């Protein structure tokens, strides 16, 4: 058992690490997941300037990606729809309508020149063996821009996940320029479907955003949705509106979908409803408003790490400088090699060193003759002559030697020297060179073509409860004991919405709070039904008149109900054999009690003022009023507390629940 547990733990950790690093989480260096990197690598290999069938690209990518063609196809389509690295031709689906792309055999793609500009450099890229050892694939491309911010990323691994929203490419490049200049910057998402963003809680890419659809309410009788929230298709939007209409939260006459390359959903309103009236309801009850949480998890230094947006930008600025410097040094080395070769050719031909080898009979003698011929010109060489140099010189054809243009050679050498000077300047002014490079990328992308799609605006989130219409009639049928807005018989209690909560006090003195019910059994003799809003309840005083069934003693209790747990029952009466006789919400009132005549009782009627009794908590004990047997009780409302020494002026009785006289059984 212990051995099996050890194997299980080891294998599970291996699996978890593999999924995190090789499947779901992008590498911060190039911002790509392994499948995306392998697709780009395949397109680099296949690039000949022409379009390739997607099915063909997928097949070639399977040499590097061991997880089947479906995952490669989906990743390729998603990347192509960003229009950043992959140029597409054919039906690649529609993110607005949710339509899928055509089969891989019908659509084509090729790599954009921009991808080569920012990713491709085999001499600076580290390669490893593919999964089967037959090919070599890159560990990570030396990316010069933060691809993970521009494209965004989403993936679920074992025990962790990443969710990064796309950002505007031009704004990201401008942010990198700000870092190079030592200036501050702020970056916010720019979603491909547009919409209105509230970024108050974005938290530099570690919080959340709220996104709304863009609504055209210029016509009072219809609303046109022109931009959708990120991740919501036109079909899903229409379904959410229809669901809200079925529940009575919106009054809609018809919905028409004209979405193609741009969102266009027409919502025709019912008679008596106007666009300004239901705008907030659309945000509250449909998919017109979404909240998206983000989690900027990436692989950095072979470990998963949460990096804020600003940290990713600064990381890539350092990487940009390092890569540009490495490329310049590499180009400098290549120019020196070319300069050395051109210098050797010039001396070899101009000084007629090739004549020295005409009478030589062995390879060693030929090489020695060439080496000795260059000895007087050692100071003109870039580096000492080596065996490979001699071999290269000996391979020059006679025709080329006879047609050798010395002036052209010297012009080439001068051109190389100019390039070397330019490289030296760039190396000594690396920051300025990086700024110019970023401007070139902006021009290559096209500022107009990559204009911001999402607008940023601060808005108040719409609470569904606050815009819900109280258009449902809550009824109580005392004959059956049922309460709800789906009941067609009984007395109308109030108008409610689906978001209202009600406080119900039953005949046995128990109370509870619950959501407005469609139909619920509360029993006969419901004592109270009202909105369970804590602010409103704080102003309501409940006065209960109850009796001890055994001793017939009469009690009064005044309290407020402000604390409760939803759907939990509480007791207003103390434990024991008590029954509720009267319940009142009058702040000031008189209670008149008539007693049953019996021997020794001289006073048969007595009046008590509500204001004479303290208002306590809902769990407190009541105050005993009398020990006499009750014949009837009557409550008369007063506008204010009576003066201590004056008889209070009485007002007309106000009907209330359970206001009938008490009979012999206390009913």
Automatic annotation (TrEMBL):
Superkingdom of the organism of origin: Bacteria
Active site: residue positions: 106
Protein name: DNA topoisomerase IV subunit A
Similarity comment: family membership: Belongs to the type II topoisomerase GyrA/ParC subunit family.
GO MF terms held by the record: ATP binding; DNA binding; DNA topoisomerase type II (double strand cut, ATP-hydrolyzing) activity
Cited InterPro entries: Topo_IIA-like_dom_sf, Topo_IIA_A/C_ab, Topo_IIA_A_a_sf, Topo_IIA_dom_A, Type_II_DNA_Topoisomerases
Phylogenetic placement of the source organism: Bacteria, Pseudomonadati, Spirochaetota, Spirochaetia, Spirochaetales
Any single GO BP term: DNA topological change
Region (Disordered): 638-667
Entry keyword set: DNA-binding, Isomerase, Topoisomerase
Record domain Topo IIA-type catalytic: where: 25-472
EC numbers for this chain: 5.99.1.3
Record Gene3D superfamilies: 3.30.1360.40, Topoisomerase II, domain 5, Topoisomerase, domain 3
Catalytic activity field: ATP-dependent breakage, passage and rejoining of double-stranded DNA
A cellular component term, taken from the record's GO annotations: cytoplasm
Biased composition (Acidic residues): 650-667
């Amino acid at each position: 058992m212990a051995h099996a547990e050890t194997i299980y733990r080891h294998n599970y950790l291996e699996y978890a690490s593999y999924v995190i690093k090789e499947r779901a989480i992008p590498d911060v260096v190039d911002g790509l997941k392994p499948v995306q990197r392998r697709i780009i690598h395949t397109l680099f290999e296949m690039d000949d300037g022409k379009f390739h069938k997607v099915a063909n690209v997928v097949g070639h990518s399977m040499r590097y990606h061991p997880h089947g063609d479906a995952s490669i196809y989906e990743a390729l389509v998603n990347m192509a729809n960003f229009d950043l690295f992959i140029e597409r031709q054919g039906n690649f689906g529609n993110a607005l309508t949710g339509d899928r792309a055509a089969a891989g055999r019908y659509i084509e793609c090729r790599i954009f020149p921009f991808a080569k500009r920012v990713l491709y450099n085999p001499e600076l890229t580290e390669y490893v063996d593919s999964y089967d050892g037959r090919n070599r694939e890159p560990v990570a491309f030396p990316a010069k821009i933060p691809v993970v911010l521009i494209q965004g990323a989403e993936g679920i691994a074992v025990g962790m996940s990443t969710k990064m929203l796309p950002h505007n490419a031009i704004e990201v490049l401008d942010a990198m320029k700000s870092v190079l200049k030592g200036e501050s910057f702020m970056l916010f998402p720019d979603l491909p479907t547009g919409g209105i963003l509230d970024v108050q809680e974005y938290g530099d890419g570690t919080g959340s955003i709220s996104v709304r659809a863009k609504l055209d309410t210029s016509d009072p009788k219809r609303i046109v949705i022109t931009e959708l929230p990120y991740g919501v298709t036109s079909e899903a939007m229409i379904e959410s509106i229809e669901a809200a209409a079925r529940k009575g939260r919106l009054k809609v006459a018809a919905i028409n979908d004209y979405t193609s390359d741009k969102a266009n959903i027409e919502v025709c309103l019912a008679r008596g409803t106007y666009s300004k009236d239901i705008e907030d309801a659309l945000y509250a009850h449909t998919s017109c408003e979404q909240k998206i949480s983000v989690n900027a998890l990436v692989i950095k230094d072979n470990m998963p790490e949460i990096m804020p947006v600003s940290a990713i930008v600064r990381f890539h600025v350092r990487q940009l400088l390092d890569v540009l410097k490495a490329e310049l040094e590499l180009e400098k080395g290549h120019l020196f090699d070319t300069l050395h070769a051109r210098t050797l050719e010039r001396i070899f031909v101009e000084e007629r060193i090739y004549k020295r080898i005409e009478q030589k009979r062995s390879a060693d003698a030929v090489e020695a003759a060439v080496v000795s011929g260059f000895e007087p010109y050692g100071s003109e060489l870039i580096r000492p002559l080596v065996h490979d140099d001699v071999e290269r010189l000996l391979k020059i054809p006679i025709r080329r030697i006879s047609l050798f243009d010395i002036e052209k050679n010297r012009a080439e050498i001068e051109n190389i020297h100019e390039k070397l000077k330019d490289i030296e300047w760039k190396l000594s002014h690396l920051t300025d060179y990086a700024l110019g490079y970023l401007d070139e990328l902006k021009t290559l992308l096209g500022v107009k073509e990559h204009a911001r799609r999402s607008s940023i605006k601060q808005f108040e989130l719409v609470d569904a409860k606050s815009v819900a219409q109280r258009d449902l009639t809550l009824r109580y049928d005392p004959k059956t004991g049922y309460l709800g807005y789906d009941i067609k018989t009984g007395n109308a209690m109030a108008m409610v919405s689906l978001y209202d909560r009600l406080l119900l006090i039953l005949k046995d003195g128990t109370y509870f709070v619950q959501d407005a019910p469609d139909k619920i059994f509360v029993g006969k003799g419901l004592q109270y039904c009202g909105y369970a809003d804590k602010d409103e309840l704080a102003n309501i005083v409940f006065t209960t008149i109850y009796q001890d069934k055994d001793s017939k003693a009469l009690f009064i209790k005044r309290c407020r109900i402000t604390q409760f747990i939803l759907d939990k029952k509480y007791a207003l009466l103390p434990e024991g054999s008590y029954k509720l006789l009267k319940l009142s919400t009058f702040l000031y009132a008189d209670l008149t009690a008539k007693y049953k005549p019996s021997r020794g009782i001289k006073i048969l009627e007595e009046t008590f003022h509500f204001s004479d009794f303290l208002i306590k908590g809902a769990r407190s004990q009541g105050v005993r009023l009398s020990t006499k047997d009750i014949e009837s009780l009557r409550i008369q409302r007063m506008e204010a507390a009576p003066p201590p020494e004056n008889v209070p002026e009485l007002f007309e009785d106000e009907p209330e629940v359970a206001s009938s006289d008490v009979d012999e059984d206390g009913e």
